[in-house]
Amino acid sequence: MSEPDWSPLTGFRVAVTSARRADELSALLKRRGATVTSAAAIEMVPLPDDDELRQRTQALIDNPPDIVVATTGIGFRGWIAAADGWGLATELTAALAKARVVSRGPKATGALRAGGLPEEWSPESESSREVLHYLVEGGISGARIAVQLHGATADWDPFPEFLDELRSAGAEVVPIRVYRWHPVPRDGEFDQLVAGIAEDKFDAVSFTSAPAVAAMLLRATEMGLEAEVLSALRNNVHAMCVGPVTARPLVRLGVPTSAPERMRLGALARHITDELPLLQARTVRVAGHLLEIRGNCVLVDGEVKAMSPAAMATVRALSHHPGAVVSRTDLLRALPGSGTDTHAVETAVLRLRSALGDKRMVSTVVKRGYRLTIDEAHAS
């Protein structure tokens, strides 16, 4: 038997919002057949120019904390690297060595040990909730706690509940915001990506940081598209997040999200590969053929059939209720643009039949419209 001419993500359209490692994630998805649109949602404040981070670093050297919490490996390494650039790395490490050191997971643990700061404790789950429980159970009233954070913006902070609950338990919290971000400038590729989400031009959008989610929501509001973007994310555009912290801003808004078990880029690519076809593909038996409808193509008996936008919109509309008659008026409404001439429907159906390769797959119902010719055994 010959090898199929499609991959797991063939025909699916995925938006990538990452600022870091976007090329890597895009390559992983393209390798699996996806059509990828990439536009960073946020841009990083260069660490040597981060005056707030430098001031907080000097304050900790002058007044060492009682407890240090490292939340990410790259963030902690970046902090030490920035301190080294300011000539403060030795003094910072010495100040932190006087504290109890807690790590949120294995990557943060590795960064701590590389800096000569062995951890007192770290959860196996990489859960901030477990770190919070450990600290509160041990008693932190009156303690000064430095928490290394990763990915803050001017309008958003990661782990807000975590910091608030530490304060509620009586601790003085010193947030150390490493790799702060700003939304990207207006009227660029990211605005086009946000508009594409609002218009259901993607089957999934990936997020690798909560700041990217926050920036997307902020930009949608600025563009007057907040309602449309949220509607798309609650229905046809699936939000794929690298982990629960990234997903949290969407979950609060009632947007369904999914994430891999391990918070890694490769795991996210595999998760999208496994989950998106289950969430988005629609498969029916039509006129003796197996028809699988994807984002911008269909498979007929395992063979990829390229579709024009009008033909794709038509087959999607017909497949929402397989076998049911869809009127010309409803099909016209589903076509791209805002045309009023039902002859456009006839043209779209003609092209759809031609692309499918078997005209029997789409039946004409005189004076009523069109329907997919569902095989009797599969009719509802």
Automatic annotation (TrEMBL):
Annotation: DNA-binding region: 281-374
Gene3D superfamilies (alphabetical): 3.40.50.10090, Winged helix-like DNA-binding domain superfamily/Winged helix DNA-binding domain
GO terms, molecular function: DNA binding; uroporphyrinogen-III synthase activity
SUPFAM superfamilies the record matches: C-terminal effector domain of the bipartite response regulators, HemD-like
Residue ranges of domain OmpR/PhoB-type in the record: 281-374
Family annotation (NCBIfam families): PRK07239.1
Chain coiled-coil ranges: none
Organism superkingdom: Bacteria
Keywords: DNA-binding
UniProt keyword DNA-binding, yes or no: yes
Name this polypeptide is given: OmpR/PhoB-type domain-containing protein
Any one GO biological process: phosphorelay signal transduction system
